[in-house]
Specification:
alpha/beta; 6-stranded parallel beta sheet; 12 strands; 46% helix
Length: 341
């Protein structure tokens, strides 16, 4: 068993190259011929070389770290998206520094300042607190997911198509009224497309509908209180009517479902429910929830692909600046489970 770490001097002595040449192999391999790169690569195997990550960071200034800011870990969509982003390490080799945002711009700016102090190579931002124009000014590649993205690259679900799919499924479930619950979102957010797709479909096919725009909160306690109020409102307004409920995400759909079961002992025939995301809670719920499935693993991989392309470009001797942000749209997949016919 080796007890001594292999150094650049050892590799130089073994190959007959200078230590400068060995250093170039690690930090600027394109400056060497393929033949010499292969000789050094074979020597690393023969000598059982273990890379000194700290030394490489100091030498190259590249940390292989990416900063991630997500709004919270309560919403199942965000926790699953983070899980899938972390899983890309096997493909792309980047490590992650993660902050859960607080919806406070001054706090999130402190997070970004901390990330930049670690010399991160790029950022993935799911929180919408800080405008994309400001994010673009930090001089690191940035990719947004489901947030305002005018000045940064992004990967989003086709939210409009998701709204169309949700309205279409509920209309086929013999509902008397279709109801979409969401926050009062600006049209600059990708998620606004869910509202627009739902409304356009209902109006085009003359489905009776109601749009309820309200803040349901970001904690379980807030969700429970607000959604209980919502259920009481719907039962007063539509007694005996078959109500098709399109919730803004699977977390809120699950809370809605649980409150109905607690009240009635089962899901009443007067309710059909569909969520959005296909986060794990939708299939793990006591009654599996129909949902408009975001392809979360695909989104995470595409975000890393877009980001790594930009980070790799910056490493070139003559990098070509990105003229326009790259925007990729991933189609949703409608998943029918037990909460709809």
């Amino acid at each position: 068993m080796r007890t001594k770490k292999v150094t650049f001097a050892d590799i130089a002595a073994y190959t007959g190259f200078s230590k400068t040449t060995i250093s170039r192999y690690f930090n600027d391999p394109d400056s060497l011929t393929l033949e010499n790169q292969e000789k050094i690569s074979n020597a690393l195997v023969e000598l059982d070389y273990q890379e000194n990550k700290v030394g490489r960071i100091l030498a190259s200034g590249k940390t292989e770290f990416i900063g991630v800011i997500i709004p919270n870990l309560y919403m199942h969509y965000y926790s699953e998206m983070l899980n899938q982003i972390l899983a890309t390490y096997e493909t792309y080799g980047y490590k992650f520094l993660v902050f859960a945002g607080s919806s406070k711009a001054d706090v999130e700016r402190k997070y970004i300042k901390e990330l930049l102090a670690y010399n991160i190579e790029g950022m993935i931002i799911l929180s919408g607190t800080i405008p994309s124009e400001e994010l673009a000014s930090y001089n690191v590649p940035v990719v947004g997911i489901e947030r305002e993205d005018q000045h940064i690259s992004s990967v989003n679900t086709d939210n409009y198509m998701g709204g169309v799919q949700a309205a279409g499924l509920l209309s086929k479930s013999n509902c008397d009224i279709l109801i979409h619950v969401n926050a009062d979102l600006p049209d600059t957010l990708p998620t606004y497309g869910r509202i627009r797709g739902f409304v356009d479909t209902c109006e085009e096919f003359h489905f009776p509908y109601e749009l309820i725009l309200t803040d349901l909160g970001n904690t379980f306690e807030e969700n429970r209180e607000k959604i209980l109020e919502l259920i009481n409102l719907l039962e007063q307004k539509y007694p005996g009517k078959r109500k098709g409920i399109f919730m803004p995400n699977d977390t809120h759909a699950n809370v809605f479902l649980n409150l109905l079961i607690q009240k009635y002992g089962s899901l009443p025939d007067t309710y059909q429910i569909i969520g959005f995301d296909n986060s794990p809670i939708s299939k793990e719920a006591v009654i599996p929830i129909s949902t408009v499935g975001q392809q979360i693993s695909v989104i995470a991989d595409e975000a890393m692909k877009v980001l790594s392309e930009q980070m790799n470009e910056r490493k070139k001797r003559r990098p070509a600046p990105l003229r326009e942000p790259v925007h990729k749209i991933i189609p949703p997949i409608l998943i029918r489970r037990k909460t709809t016919i």
